[in-house]
Specification:
It is a single chain. By secondary structure, this protein is mainly α. The chain is about 75% helix and about 0% strand. A two-stranded antiparallel ribbon has the order 1-2. Helix 1 crosses helix 4, helix 3 runs antiparallel to helix 4 (about 85-110) and helix 9 packs antiparallel against helix 15. Mean pLDDT is about 95; it is low at about 1-5.
Length: about 375
């Protein structure tokens, strides 16, 4: 999707597939250039590490964050054609490189063997270590290479956002949003890891981590970034952010349910990872509270053992029996409805309104 001058052509409106195609074109062109630069430094660095980063970034994902950023741009009054639209599109695409960073590092921290239906980055490098009979520990090598991959993705995300914002008069305000989203996702991950290590079982703590790690990073801030790039009025920014907070948490709760009750074909990851690690989700913390309220000692014993060797499938069945699965489903529905209701006060492009409504309603369908 390039112009005659070789630039990426922004989508005409808010259509999901056209936006995804435009974002992929930006990422492909950008990573082609960076890969050639890397090969100039060292052939194997460019071919292997950067090639792996490129394959991971372009080989999967729904481009949700760039989509929301573009919709925020259009909702805020941004144009869909011309140099400023091209600049904004690069800013939106930078969020996908930030996503690469977050996923690769997240898998290292969680020890996840699968991502997007294939081996995670650190497991892929560990397998390379074994196949090549390299010296040292294969796990350490795989994790170190994955950390490098994530670090490079974060650095290049910063470079790409700077390229985009340089072409916009709203650079300063949009850069503030970018700064916040990078910090918030790490704060959310900190809370997640600390809560897991401390074996916290708090519904409030679980939702606080969800708001920072997922809602802000996945929905609220991408919309905010797009609106800030467009110079949107304050009421539009507030409404979009309120929508993003509620829908973002709903999506995280939906993912928690998929982790417990889904399949690798649906999620691209192993089923039951959260329960096996004892992660403090609303599903688990609410389930433990419900078990205690029912004075169900056996259910409490099983759920207390999450992260200590309890079979995740058994824990999932107990969570359903005590009513935690239904509670999280109801919470998804309530957050979805409240998020969509925030849109009614906004005067939005009809296509953006339709896409945001559809997305919000999808969060209520685990």
């Amino acid at each position: 999707m390039r112009t005659d001058q070789g630039r990426e052509r922004p989508p005409a409106g808010a259509d999901t597939e056209s936006v995804r195609g435009a974002v992929d074109a930006v990422l492909s062109r950008y990573l082609d250039v960076r890969e050639r630069e890397a090969e100039g430094l060292d052939r194997e660095f460019g071919r292997d590490l950067v090639g792996g980063l490129r394959a991971f970034t372009l080989g999967g994902g729904k481009r949700l964050r760039p989509l929301l950023a573009w919709w925020g741009w259009i909702a805020g009054g941004g144009v869909s054609r011309g140099p400023t639209a091209e600049a904004a599109l690069r800013g939106c695409a930078a969020l996908e490189l930030l996503q690469t960073f977050a996923l690769v590092h997240d898998d290292v921290m969680d020890g996840s063997p699968l991502r997007r239906g294939a081996s995670s980055v650190h497991d892929t490098y560990a397998a390379e270590h074994r196949a090549g009979s390299y010296t040292g520990e294969d796990r350490r090598y795989g994790e170190a290479m994955a950390v490098l991959t994530g670090d490079l993705a974060l650095a290049w995300a910063d470079d790409l956002i700077d390229e985009g914002l340089a072409g916009l008069p709203t650079r300063a305000e949009a850069r503030k949003v970018w700064t916040r989203v990078r910090t918030e996702v790490m704060a959310g991950q900190f809370l997640d890891l600390r809560g897991q290590a401390r074996r916290e079982r708090s519904e409030d703590a679980a939702l606080r981590a969800d708001r920072l790690k997922t809602a802000a990073y996945t929905a609220e801030r991408p919309l905010h970034l797009g609106a800030a790039m467009a110079g949107a009025p304050a009421p539009t920014v507030r409404g979009l952010r309120a929508y993003g907070r509620d829908v973002g948490v709903a999506f995280q709760l939906r993912d928690d349910l998929r982790d417990a009750y889904g399949s690798p074909e649906l999620t691209g990851k192993q089923v039951g990872e959260d329960l096996a690690r004892g992660r403090n989700t609303l599903l688990l913390s609410a389930g433990l509270r419900l078990a205690r309220e029912r004075a169900d000692a056996e259910a409490e014993r099983v759920l207390t053992g999450a992260g200590r060797g309890t079979d995740p499938a058994l824990a999932a069945s107990v969570l359903e029996a005590v009513g935690a699965r239904d509670l999280v489903l109801r919470t998804c529905h309530a957050l979805s409805a409240r998020g969509v209701a925030h849109l009614s006060a906004l005067s939005l492009d009809p296509d953006v309104m339709r896409e945001l409504r559809d997305l919000g309603e999808a969060a209520a369908r685990p």
